[in-house]
Amino acid sequence: MKAEVINPFLESARLVIEQVIQISPSTGNLGVKEVAHIDNHIWIQVGMTGQLSGNVVFGLQEDVALRIVSLMMGGFVLTEMDEMGKSAISELGNMISGNASTILSSQGFAVDITPPKVMKSEVTELPRMALCIPLVMDGIGELDIQVMIS
After folding, report:
1. Residue 127 — pLDDT band, cuts 50, 70, 90?
2. SS3 72
3. 42 to each of 31, 57, 63, how far by Cα in Å?
4. What's the predicted TM-score (pTM) here?
5. Which residues pair with 46 in a beta bridge?
6. Do 136 and 17 touch, CB atoms closer than 8 A?
7. Over residues 18-27, mean pLDDT
8. Domains delineated in the chain
């Protein structure tokens, strides 16, 4: 795993979250951790191909995802992650990853991203080890950025 690869995703996530839900997130501690399934969690997985390949997974508790989606939809409160909610949270992952791939491209890396895939706790397709950094959004919760790219 290349540690410098997480910075474009961190920079992009901060920017997108500020633009989309008008909250400035703070950054937690960078670390390597095992990606484990946690009850009531949602993961947005985006693949990366080209000079860098692997996956980026955005992990968040389902209630945090619902709060984010509600803010993305202008305050319309969602109480369950329906198709509209999955589409919105998927688009958040897509915007973050798209911006990050643009940053990587400006740094000389030719990369493409795959469409985001939203997964819930019961899905078992996640890779196991990741470089991880949490974004903390006051009043909303955390979004973990988990990078598994080589």
Report:
1. low
2. helix
3. 20, 10, 9
4. 0.89
5. 56
6. no
7. 93
8. 3-149 (3.40.1550.10)
